[in-house]
Amino acid sequence: MTAVDSALRATRTTCPYCGVGCGVLATPDDRGGAAISGDPEHPANFGRLCSKGSALGETLGLEDRLLYPMIRCSKGTMERVAWSDALDHVAHRFAHIIKRDGPGAVAFYLSGQLLTEDYYVANKLMKGFIGSANVDTNSRLCMASSVAGHRRVFGSDTVPGCYEDIDEADLIVLVGSNAAWCHPLLYQRMILARERRGARLVAIDVRGTATTETADLALTIQPGMDGVLFSALLVRLAETGQINQSFVENHTEGYDETLARARAIAPDLAVAARKCGLEEQVLSEFLDLWCATERVVTLYSQGVNQSWQGTDKVTAILNCHLAAGRIGRPGMGPFSLTGQPNAMGGREVGGLANQLAAHMGFSPAEVDRVGRFWRASRMATREGLKAVDLFEAVGRSEVKALWIMGTNPAVSLPQADDVRTALRNLDLLVISDNVRSNDTIAVGAHVLLPATAWGEKDGTVTNSERCISRQRPFLAPAAEARPDWWAMAQVARRLGFGEAFAHDGPAAIFREHAALSAFENDGSRDFDIGALAQLSDAGYEALAPVQWPLASGANEASARLFADGRFFTASGRARLTAITPPSLARTPSAESPLLLNTGRIRDQWHTMTRTGLSPRLGSHLPEPFVEVNPQDAKTYGLVHGELAEIRTAHGRAILRVKATTAQEPGRLFAPIHWSDETAAGARIGALIHAITDPASGQPDAKSMPASIAATSFARQGLILSRTRLRPAGDGIYAWRAIEGGYVAGVATNVPAEKLFAGLCAACPDAERMHYHDPARGTFRAAFIAEHRLVAVIFLGLDDRETAYASVAEMWKANQLDEPMRRRVLAGKSASSDVDMSPTVCACFGVTSRAIESAIGDGASSTLEIGARLKAGTNCGSCLPELRKFLASRNDVAA
Length: 894
Hints:
It is built from 32 helices and 34 strands. Helix 9 (226-239) crosses helix 11, helix 9 runs antiparallel to helix 12 and helix 9 (226-239) crosses helix 13.
């Protein structure tokens, strides 16, 4: 725990990770860091934090920060410049390209990590004054299908419910969501609803997860068949008389056509079960449970959205809730779980290329309304390029200038190798970020602008339940870092739009945003926070979490929408919509017989530029891996713990094999987080096709045809270094943070002498010690500077964990004594107490060895483990693993 000056006061702010939007109390220390705890008064988390939120204090260092503006000089190197010079250059180049090629030749690519105020200024500048709608966001990759489904059915991008519905539901259905890992605080509310009220929990997914393991009923369905399952549910509702006829007749349209299509897709239970890959009894149990339970909440996430038919999947879920009239009332409704902290805020201000601000679109009336409010000089009149289309246009040199803010598309976009190639075509690549290096920056940015980081940011975010919260600064901006909205406003002024961008701070931007939401609204649009349009600077600073809509004159927000049966379509009725028969975008073949699914793991976030700095977060799953069914492992000659190469039509990756029955035969799973900054040969985005949903533009990332084969390298080992290094030559590696530096697992064909020479070049002033036994294939070396280890390499290891433990004490030592120097290359620990086993509970740093020891000493339940070690007592995301330890112990005892 960080020592904190008792005179310092905690700042209420908001977590920068998932869409749950947890409140955080941050108390700065006197060394540039802060003590972090959950805010007990925030309605999203009531004081709890997940493992990532709990470790936020470990991510505040300046070692990897971009601290000053930089411009690429004629020699190709980046040179530090003054802000004024960088802004002048950006404005000059944008103006030149717009004059030469038109406004469609420039674009912004944003991030759900931005604050609403940043998003608003970007949207206003590009769409209102440059005259292009080429503003899109990495949120396109995670929730665009939800947006499209909401707008198709509701006439607006409205999440109708709130978190309290989870507390009041009798049935909670999770579809394509490993909430136990990806939204752990919400998942604990679900578990609490089960314990306190007897709520049933159903998990529907294509693989086994921590969520399916703890569900009352788990349905493992065929990839892409969610639409079949919910078509079968709509048919069952009709057959059992559970259609709410009054609601359907008075508040919806399209029911007959939608039901007819559902019957064509799922004509009977046997056909639906076969298409879904389920036993008839299991499917029937779910259908009957949903039909018989009025208070049902259906939550869905990336497993639904990240599909070429994602909008249809969302639509199928909404159809069922509308047909049953289970919407807008306590304990019921469809619920989209957003992946980023401000994906919702970005949607509110038009951060997507096919939207304008305040949930307006590109109809002539809406274009006119927004243009008049902004007094826009060059209002965009049609939709811009969505993310995948945008980067394809960059590749064709149709977009010539691109400003990227707070995201890493060279890793996260599909066909990521093509994205890298495309970025090199740009006449101008501007990147605003708070990191000095990532894969996108490495492609060759022309201008780097240092952005404020979490802890320095000042603005608002909106979470999955439409709750607006303040993200307050508790640290001064590092060096010359500035807010993204400020940098854009400065460029806008240089382009001649100064009057429209004269905001003196985020409060002024928020007031304008709130006023636009109410402009000519009168209840005709869902998003309305007009009651906040006159908020003073002091009121903005003190703003407590509040849900929208909050119209002018309203005393409180509406927790749930559509309770009155009124929707935001032209007719005021919800549009039940027939879906296209479900299918895969690409099917397996002889060359690619398996289906690769991608996703997140518990303790990492996006491309690890923040979570990768935390030692405890890196210890849970330290290496990139591929999950494969044991039957497939046998078929393809794979060994658990060894390496395998995955190939698709677009790329390849080499990952550590995890053989597990959580994967169905014929399917693979690999996490998305590793980049070339943190590993080699592990960028999963490079393997994924760029096929998108035709309605939402969201890429299909859950069912990519792939092949897998065993692979090996001449030598394996590990490297410790005070800074991240890139091993020479071919091979793989995966860095993770440890106390005082980084450790990488290495597999390579490069001779040990060459690796040693590379480390010598990286540590030119260090004293060198090495040991080489070619007959045994063993090589060990250490580098010492100022009586301290600065790098270690061990090759030819049978057990990397033992080797790591052998130098752990010496690595932490500020000064090596003579006995330590003699032991450095021994490969044995001086103390049997060194525990380098994987972390299971990241919130409290509890390792697998500690848990096994507690069970061995008599702990027979997760409660008893928690009482002894605290494991599982905070966010609860490690509880499934604790239960596995207990079950394994019981099996051994039996």
